[in-house]
C-alpha cells in the first residue's frame, strides 16, 4: 500500500527528498479497532459474498455466507460488522438470534458447537454503508454520480472490511472467497481472482469472481465503473502465460496505461528473483480508484491513476511485490507490518537495480530509503516491531525495515540473501508469518544466530550516530592508522549501542584500500599498519549503514595515549596494565561479537588480569571508570 496524505505536506520544509513531490504515508488515528491479539475461536474457510449494488441509490442488499471451523467449543460467535441493517442470520439453514455489540455481530447458535465442527453462517443485510472515520481504507464507497470519473470501490486496509461485510477482520484468519456482484447495466466489476461469469439478468449484470488462494480479509475488494477502458496483456512466467489487465478511466487510458505496462517486465523479474508469481493461475490487474494512493488488493491492485507518480515503475513494483510479501505471505499481526511494507519498499530498490544498475540502486537506497527515514526520525522514536498504531504505516514500517534488509544483504552476501527470500517466500506462501518466522529462516540459512542483528534493528528504536576521527603514527618503515569510532546516540535514551560490521576506506592518491571491523562499543578504536600515510580516511565508503556520520575533522593521535591507562597485548593469558595513580579501575572484556565476557574491578596503580581461560583472538577491553575508553587487545596463544 502507498498512500498520499495532504496533512503531511506541511512537513516538507524539512523533507528534502520527497517522492515526486507527494507524500505517501497516511496518518492513522484509531479509536475502535480490532482486538487483534484476542484469541480467535473459529477459523474462516470461505466467504461467499453476494451484493446487489443499487448505485443510483447508493445502497446495498447483500448476503454473506461464511463457512468456518470451530477452534474451540462454543454456543455463540462474534463476527466483525459495522453499519447497515441485518435482517436475518441463519446457521445451517436455521434462523439464529443475534445482537450487535460495538463493532461485533454476536450470533447465538442455540446449542454448543463442538471443536472442529464446520458451520455455515449466512448473514442477510441491507442499507447504505457507513464508512470508517479513520485509517487508510474506509470501506465501501458507492458513487452514483454520472461524471466521467465515477467509480464505486472498496478499500479496507487495515480494518475497514467490516464496514461492508461480516467477517473476521484480522489478518491472521485467511480464507478463500467468492464475490457475486449485481450492478446496473453498463457497469463493469473487477474483483479478486478469476472472473467465472458475467451474465445479464434483465436490466442488470451479475459478475461472479472467485479467489481460490487464501486471502486476508483486508485484501478482499471490488471496483465498479461505467468509465473503465480495459487493456489486456500477457506476461510469461517460466513459459506459463499470466493475464495482465489494466482498467483505467477512459479519459486517462491513452496517457496512463503505457506507464502501467512495465509491470510485465517487473513480474517476470520478481518471479525469477523470488519464486514464480503466487497467483499465476489467476491474473494481475491494475484498477483505477480515486483514493490518494494505491492498495495491493490480491490480484487486483487499486491505484489512483490520476496522480503523477513520477517514476511510475516505483509504485508499480511496490504494489506488485506485495503479491509475494503481504498477499501470499501476510503478516499475522498488524504490528509486524514491516514484513509487508518493508519488503515492498525494498522491492522498489530491487527493481531500480535491475533496470538501471547497481549505482542507481545505491542512490535509491541512500536517498529514498535511508535518507527518507533519517529525515523523518527526529520526531519519532519507536521500534519497527510493535510500533504504536499511529505508526503502522510510516517510515518505521516502510523505509527503515527496507534499510534493514539492505544491511542484511550486505552482511550475508547476495547469494545467501536471495536464497533466504526464496525460502521464506515458499515456506509461508498462502499463509501468514511473524517477524520471528523470517528471523528463523535467516538463522537456518546462515547457520548462525542473528538475534544480535534483529534485536537492535527491529526491537529497539533509532540507529547509530557515529563520531569518527582518525590519526597516523609512524612505526619504523610503516605507519599505524588509528580509527576511532564513537556511538553518540543519546536520544531517545533507549536507542542501543549498535553492533555492526563497519568499513573504512583508506585513500592514497588514486587508490583506496578497504578495512573492515566489528564495531560494538560506545567508544572503540581500530588500527591497521600500512606502508604509507593515507591522504584521507573515510567511514562507510560504500554508504551501506543506516546511520548518521559526523567527522571530527581533526586527525587525532592514538586515543589511548595520555589517557592514564595503558594495557598490553596479552601474552600467556596475562593482561598487564598500568594507570597514572592509585584509583578505582573497572574493566569489562568483550569479544569481537560485542558479547561481554567478564568484568574486573580493583584499586591498583598497575597489575595484571589472568585471562588464560579464554581462547586466542581479538578482544576489547573497556575501562568503565577513569575517562571511559576502549582498548583492542590480542590474546596470543
Ligand atoms: Zn505497500
Keywords:
Immunoglobulin-like, eight-stranded mixed β-sheet, alpha+beta, six-stranded mixed β-sheet, binds zinc ion, 637 residues, Neutral Protease, domain 2, elongated, 4 domains
Short description:
This protein is α+β, with helices and mostly antiparallel strands and 637 residues long.
Explain what the structure shows:
It contains nine helices and 36 strands. Helix 2 packs across helix 3 (312-321), helix 6 crosses helix 7 and helix 7 (414-427) packs across helix 8 (435-446). The protein is of the alpha+beta class. The strands form eight sheets. An eight-stranded mixed beta sheet has the order 6-5-9-3-2-12-15-14, with no helix packed on it. Strands 1-20-21-19-18-17 form a six-stranded mixed beta sheet, covered by helices on one side. The model is unreliable at 5-39 (pLDDT under 50). It has four domains: 40-221, tricorn interacting facor f3 domain (Immunoglobulin-like, Sandwich); 330-458, Neutral Protease, domain 2 (Orthogonal Bundle), CATH 1.10.390; 465-551, Immunoglobulin-like; 565-636, Immunoglobulins (Immunoglobulin-like), CATH 2.60.40. Strand 26 and strand 27 (511-519) form a beta hairpin. Bound molecules: zinc ion. Residues 1-2, 318, 322, 341, 344 line the site of zinc ion.
